[in-house]
């Protein structure tokens, strides 16, 4: 299986999407390292999401709350600015929550395949179903970034390796279940909402990756559809 790993054991990207806020805000490097006093274009939406008073004005407490969110999810620069990347993550979280326990409401993931793992790139959600019955999920996932998109279509799990390490990026990929040319389900030690995304794999929390490992086996179907925001 060495050539399989060499061909494309795709791992997570741990570098966040760095927005050019320093130039946009006219900040100096010293200012960029501290909490910004400037309100961002999504100030009101971000305030509402975080349960802050919605006035569209940046306060020190607003900045602290926004910055904590950015730090937790690897959004860079984490200076408390309510910009498009931060709001994009929050908006996605809201859309994921709205799905509830009916992720295949649109019927796009096949219900005639028996047990199948579904991946909705548009909502960054995955789940396991058996016919029309939901077996596990839906759970948030982190798929391929622009230029490294997780490929769409019907696949099959062809190789499983519980303690896999990427030969390309030299990072651990626990609970790897490969389904398409090196693209796999596997757990990551960072936020699954960390932008801009993976190098093609479907990243999951350790809890979810372990559950997928226990529920799926070699030869099971995987169906990937939609389009990840920003790709």
TrEMBL record:
One Pfam family, short name: YkuD
Record has Signal as a keyword: yes
GO biological process: one example: cell wall organization
Transmembrane segments: none
Pathway where it operates: Cell wall biogenesis; peptidoglycan biosynthesis
Residue ranges of every copy of the L,D-TPase catalytic domain listed in the record: 114-225
InterPro entries recorded: LD-transpeptidase (IPR050979), LD_TPept_cat_dom (IPR005490), PGBD-like_sf (IPR036365), Transpep_catalytic_dom (IPR038063)
GO CC, any one term: extracellular region
Example of a GO MF term: peptidoglycan L,D-transpeptidase activity
SUPFAM superfamilies, sorted: L,D-transpeptidase catalytic domain-like, PGBD-like
Signal sequence interval, chain numbering: 1-32
Alphabetical keyword list: Cell shape, Cell wall biogenesis/degradation, Peptidoglycan synthesis, Signal, Transferase
UniProt-annotated catalytic positions: 186 (proton donor/acceptor), 201 (nucleophile)
Domain of life: Bacteria
PANTHER family linked: EXPORTED PROTEIN, L,D-TRANSPEPTIDASE
Designated name of the protein: L,D-TPase catalytic domain-containing protein
């Amino acid at each position: 299986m060495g050539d399989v790993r060499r061909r494309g054991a795709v791992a997570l990207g741990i570098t966040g999407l760095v927005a050019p806020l320093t130039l946009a805000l006219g900040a100096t490097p010293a200012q960029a390292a501290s909490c910004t006093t400037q309100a961002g274009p999504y100030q009101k939406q971000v305030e509402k999401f975080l349960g802050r008073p919605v006035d569209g004005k940046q306060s020190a407490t607003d900045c602290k709350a926004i910055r904590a969110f950015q730090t937790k999810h690897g959004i860079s620069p984490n200076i408390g600015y309510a910009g498009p990347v931060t709001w994009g993550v929050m908006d996605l979280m809201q859309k994921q929550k709205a799905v509830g326990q009916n992720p295949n409401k649109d019927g796009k993931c096949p219900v005639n395949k028996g047990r199948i793992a579904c991946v909705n790139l548009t909502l960054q959600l995955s789940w396991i179903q058996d016919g029309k019955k939901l077996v596990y999920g839906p759970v948030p996932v982190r798929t391929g970034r622009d230029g490294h998109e997780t490929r769409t279509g019907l696949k099959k799990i062809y190789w499983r390796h519980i303690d896999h390490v990427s030969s390309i990026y030299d990072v651990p990929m626990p609970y790897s279940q490969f389904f398409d040319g090196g693209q796999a389900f596997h757990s990551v030690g960072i936020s699954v909402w960390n932008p801009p995304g993976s190098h093609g794999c479907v990243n999951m929390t350790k809890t979810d990756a372990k559950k997928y490992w226990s529920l799926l086996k070699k030869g099971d179907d995987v169906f990937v559809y939609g389009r990840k925001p920003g790709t």
